[in-house]
TrEMBL record:
SMART domains: PH, RA, SH2
GO molecular function list: insulin receptor binding
Localization annotation: Cytoplasm
Stated family: Belongs to the GRB7/10/14 family.
Domain PH, chain residue ranges per copy: 294-403
Region (Disordered) location: 79-119
Coiled coil segments of this chain: none
Domain SH2: 497-593
GO biological process: insulin receptor signaling pathway; negative regulation of insulin receptor signaling pathway; negative regulation of Wnt signaling pathway
Protein name, as recorded: Growth factor receptor-bound protein 10
Length: 598
């Protein structure tokens, strides 16, 4: 879903209406109430208004209303019934005349009607909602004349006369990568995916189904991505006061459905070893999703001993019933297996504090945290893997064994939405997902340029033409203050994949946080060369850096990744080229590392 309405709005149409109504309504106006004629007098600077005459006119209008109701009640009871008594025990003054309600009370002669005897003209009249069956009797329009404002005169559709619905909404605050926060009011049944779509809708950014809510615990040094089907209000109820939600992209959220063999090494999957690694890719996922099957992940992990900074290397097994470790080598016998943690009431987190804090043997730490634990470190099961692939395998298998087919359904919903789109609709997608091809429009009809060399020369020619056109516009008095040669050095700063002067470690952190999938990239300023840039790219869960150097030719500056063999007029052209061609890179540029401002 792109910039359109979030799915939750489509399923609950009244949610958007109530949000708009509560956010924009500042004053309630009672329909059908007409101002007295005396209020239509022209206003003078000295506010010369006859207050006594104004009160008398209003009391006359109220008296006529009560007299009509009393007469109607007498007719219905054949003149023998008693009209209902209006007992008002409130003695509030009229809000327009504080402190003077009794001073301007109109004294009327006693009336024969019991209602008129007990009428208090200085007290406010309470307007009650009329039932749907009596709506026709409340209308004061003569028969034969159509009602020009049915939504105002109908109590059922009136926002003032209808009973007020008490909403069971909750306040949730979400933080972005730049430290900005946004407060949203959501109902209790709103999922993490619905909240992400709401934030995308409010922030006017592109939705490529990679946005996630991150449960972040700064004191514990833990974080995890919420599953799309999880209820945000329930998760927030289990969080401590210092914890918060982050709004971030995670391209690896469902990557294991696309490339399962990359996530589950054969030596860690039990049935792959029993069948000599002949399990096909489809069967590999089926064993995880099918609740009747018994998949098992096995391997060595480091376990932190409670209350100490020492770690113990144990052989562990992950099954549907929980995570076990063997007390005797690699034995699978039940008498040698000890339960470490179950899956039902626990969640798996990534440790973000680094290895030095806990004296971890490697950098690839993760943690199993019981749902009931808020800030007690003693209840955490802290683990450490040998490498990134092993850690990813353990954490992915934990999610699959816990949620099963629900994860596949969450992954499949955006795919079905894309397939159900009309062929005439043009969904807004990121550039990395579009099929970009070089086109030649020099002839009468356009053609696709298949030759990469020809595509490169066409791009260079187009860039030079654009430069000449910009130069000509500046000479003719263009409002642009940038010189064309300097424009190419700053135009990339508006792109989502450019992150300015960030450190190498910060670039690593952003790539790791957003999934470490093949083709995840960002561009940044070089720290060693102030005129150069650096392309940070992830491939096979490894992060690599490529320097982009400027080169000058015929008085113009170009940018190149391969020592001038392939030159580009600006960084935007460079990124677009390597999104189509791998060139000297290990893979194509696919997913831009993005940080949105809420």
């Amino acid at each position: 879903m792109a910039l359109g309405c979030p799915d939750y709005f489509l399923r609950h149409s009244n949610y958007q209406e109530s949000m708009d109504r509560t956010s924009t309504r500042e004053e309630l106006i009672v329909p059908g109430f007409q101002r007295p004629a005396s209020q239509n007098l022209p206003h003078h600077h000295d506010d010369d208004v006859d207050l006594e005459q104004l009160v008398n006119d209003m009391n006359s209008s109220m008296e006529s209303v009560y007299s009509t109701q009393a007469d109607t009640a007498l007719l219905l009871n054949n003149g023998h019934g008693h009209a209902p008594h209006h007992h008002h025990h409130h003695h509030h003054m009229h809000p327009a005349y504080p402190g003077h309600g009794q001073a301007y009370r109109r004294h009327t002669p006693p009336s024969s009607s019991p209602s008129r005897e007990r009428l208090r003209h200085s007290q406010p009249m309470h307007i009650q909602a009329v039932p749907a069956g009596r709506a026709s009797s409340a209308s004061s329009l003569p028969t034969g004349i159509p009602n020009p404002f049915p939504e105002l005169c109908s109590p059922a559709g009136s926002p003032v006369l209808s009973p007020i619905q008490t909403s069971d909404n909750h306040i949730v605050k979400v933080w972005s990568e730049d430290g900005a926060g946004k407060v949203v009011e959501i109902p209790a049944d709103m999922t993490a995916r619905d909240v992400c779509q709401l934030l995308v809708y409010k922030s006017h950014c592109l939705d490529d189904n990679a946005w996630t809510l991150v449960e972040h615990h700064p004191i514990l040094g833990l974080e995890r991505c919420l599953e799309d089907h999880e209820l945000v209000v329930q998760v927030q109820a289990s969080m401590s006061s210092d914890s918060k939600f982050l709004f971030r992209k995670n391209y690896a959220k469902y990557e294991f459905f696309r490339n399962p063999l990359n996530f589950f090494p054969e030596q860690m999957v039990a049935w792959c070893q029993e069948s000599d690694g002949s399990i096909p890719q489809s069967q590999l996922l089926q064993n995880f999703l099918n609740s009747s099957s018994c998949p098992e992940i096995q391997g060595y992990l480091y376990l932190k001993e409670p209350g100490r900074k020492s770690w113990k290397k144990l052989y562990m097994f992950l099954r549907r019933s929980g995570l076990y470790y063997s007390t005797k080598g690699t034995s699978k016998e039940p008498r040698h297996l000890q339960l470490l943690s179950d899956l039902e009431d626990s969640n798996i987190f990534t440790i973000i504090t680094g290895r030095k804090l806990h004296n971890a043997p490697t950098d690839y730490q993760f943690c199993i945290k019981p749902s009931k634990v808020r800030s007690d470190c003693k209840e955490l099961k802290m683990l450490c893997a040998e490498d990134e692939q092993s850690r990813t395998c353990w954490m992915t298998a934990f999610r699959l064994l816990k949620y099963g087919i629900v994860l596949y359904q969450s992954y499949n919903v955006p795919q079905q939405r894309k397939s159900n789109l009309s062929p005439f609709s043009a969904p807004v997608r990121s550039v990395s997902e579009n099929s970009l091809v070089a086109m030649d429009f020099s002839g009468r009809t356009g053609r696709v340029i298949d030759n990469p060399a020809e595509a490169q020369s066409a791009a260079l020619e187009e860039g030079q033409t654009w430069r000449k056109r910009s130069q000509r516009m500046n000479v003719l008095g263009s409002p642009s203050t940038l010189h064309p040669s300097s424009l190419s050095t700053v135009i990339h700063r508006t792109q989502v994949w450019f992150h300015g002067r960030i450190m190498r470690e910060e670039a690593h952190k952003m790539i790791i946080q957003q999934g470490q999938v093949d083709g995840l990239f960002l561009l940044r300023d070089s720290q060693s060369n102030p005129k150069a840039f650096v392309l940070t790219l992830c491939h096979h869960q490894k992060i690599k850096h490529f320097q982009i150097l400027p080169c000058e030719e015929d008085g113009q500056v170009f940018f190149s990744l391969d020592d001038g063999a392939t030159k580009f007029t600006d960084l935007i052209h460079l990124v677009e080229f390597y999104q189509l061609n791998r060139g000297v890179l290990p893979c194509k540029l696919k997913h831009p590392c993005t940080a949105v401002a809420l």
